[in-house]
Amino acid sequence: MAESTRRLIQKHNIKLTKSLGQNFLTDEKVVKKIVDTAELADNDTVIEIGPGVGSMTVELAKRAKKVIAVEIDKRLIPALKENLEEFQNIQIINMDIMDADIKELQKGVQTDRLKVVANLPYYITTPIIMKLLEEDDNISLMVFMVQKEVARRMAAQPGGKDYGSLSVAVQYYSKPEIAFDVSPHCFVPQPDVDSTVIKLKRNETPPVKLLDKELFFRTVKASFGQRRKTLVNALYNFGGFQKTKEEIKEILHSLEINENVRGEALSITQFAELSNAFFK
To answer: What is the largest CA-CA distance in the chain?
Structure first.
């Protein structure tokens, strides 16, 4: 597989672009482990983001009913088509996933479940993941290769240094589970960081009840915006709640939250209670 990837790159004279975060997997065992993590059934449709020259797309196509491969770099399309020519269940789309209407990509596809699998460019990991979580509740499972530190932040629990607004946002929409780590040696070219495969299983219902979802995420953002400040000061300095410092203190006391803790101490349930109190 490593030779096949390198051969396609050389044959099509592809110059990998650092600005697009192009690091292609060349380890067949790792590819199969990623696809195993997606728990594919033969009636699943998979959206693959950034297929590159198709090393993982091949394995996905063997197991899923349909694969929709979305690749931003038009220079890779000829190599991708060559590598996938024996498969009839793959649709290749040349576009930026950030510009895509996720529901539009699925139009005409009859499937029991929709899943996403991707080796994401590390420079735009979070925006892509949040777009998918926010825009389409039809996606039942997502499997991403991301920078190791980002995976740890998504799965982090309250109280640790990795816990932050990304942790809360991801866990509002899904249940994150770290699958396994991947060495830089498994890529061409080798990235400068370690990678981790993480699985996000979408929550069928949100874990908390919110009076105003936008206010909830604003509360989370404010709480982590100045991590070294106490919660009451971080919320007050944010200035978006139209509350005096004394009013914020009273709300925290009513919820039995210590005003001197920092945002990283609060659970998603406490953030929900806090934003609901701000709403009233």
So the answer is: 68
pLDDT of residue 103: 86
DSSP, collapsed to helix, strand or coil, labels residue 145 as strand
Q: Which top CATH class is 2-202? A: alpha beta
Side-chain-side CA neighbours of 35 within 13 Å: the count stands at 24
Beta strands in the chain (DSSP E): 24-25, 44-49, 66-71, 90-94, 113-119, 139-147, 174-182, 187-188, 195-202
The CATH architecture of the domain made up of 213-279 is Orthogonal Bundle (1.10)
| CB contact at 8 A, 200 and 174 | yes
What are the residues whose beta carbons fall under 8 Å from the beta carbon of 198, sequence distance 6 or more?
143, 144, 146, 151, 154, 155, 176, 177, 178, 179
What is the residue extent of each domain of the chain?
Answer: 2-202, 213-279
Separation of alpha carbons 192 and 230, rounded Å: 35
Average pLDDT over residues 36-62: 94
Q: What is the pTM of this model?
A: 0.90
Q: Same topology for domains 2-202 and 213-279, yes or no? A: no
